[in-house]
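Standup, Tuesday
Yesterday: got the pipeline producing structure tokens again.
Today: sanity-check two examples.
Blockers: none.

Example 1:
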Amino acid sequence: MSFDHGTLNIPLSKRGNINAQIDQFKADQAANAKLDRKARADVMAGQRMTAKGLVARVAEQRVLELAVRCNVTPATMRKQLKSDAHWQPALVIGLLAPKGA
């Protein structure tokens, strides 16, 4: 919010209700933040569905390759992939998505 310097010379009682302006600004900021959170949640939900589908269809050979790379057992790798499909779906999509897709 920018003010004209001429406006600053007007007494506060004549400028309007500054508290109402502040409240409106805060309400607008909260509404924008809520929309941003909703958009991010929708994107995350879509990524989770994709990642969980990829984990369900992953070949045992790919799980074994990842397990060797991470120095863990294949069962531990599969468990980690399932966990990451929920918490870090973009990571799982990057690991398991077919190249060129």
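Example 2:
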Amino acid sequence: MEGFYRTFSDIIQTIEEALEKERIVPCLILIFSAIDSFSFLAEKSDRTGRSVFKSWVKKWMLTKYPLPCNENDIYAARCGLLHQQVSESNLSKEGRAKQIYYSWGNSNHEILESAISKSNKRANVVAVKVEDLFWSFRKGLTDCKIEIGKDKNWECIFKEKAKKLFINVSS
């Protein structure tokens, strides 16, 4: 488990550093990638992919730490950003998810929300603060890890998957 803690500690710290330096695209890439990775680790079966990601986001992030979007919107944002570094994805083009526009840092989030509400895209776009997305993920990760620790079978599954994580080995 040391590898898991080291890897995720590095990821969380790097997300925080990217936020501080306003490197928002790398920050979001790391957040979405971390959700992907952790949702796989926390899945009790061998399932992977979209349904695992969305189920984890809904249960562990949005239920207790809501955002102005749903798990489908977050998955679509992940696809657009990771595959093409854009806010649009196939799901949003098809009208099955909203695009997420982001604010961060000291920017006035209300200005973004107002601009969206005045535009012709208001039904297809939602404003999310990057820090809120990150906070929802961090809290959800912590809550999920606590629950995993209460279930020995689930913990064994998690540990077996976590053994496969890349880790840094000091020279």
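Quick observation on example 2: The chain has a mean pLDDT of 91. The chain is about 65% helix and 5% strand.
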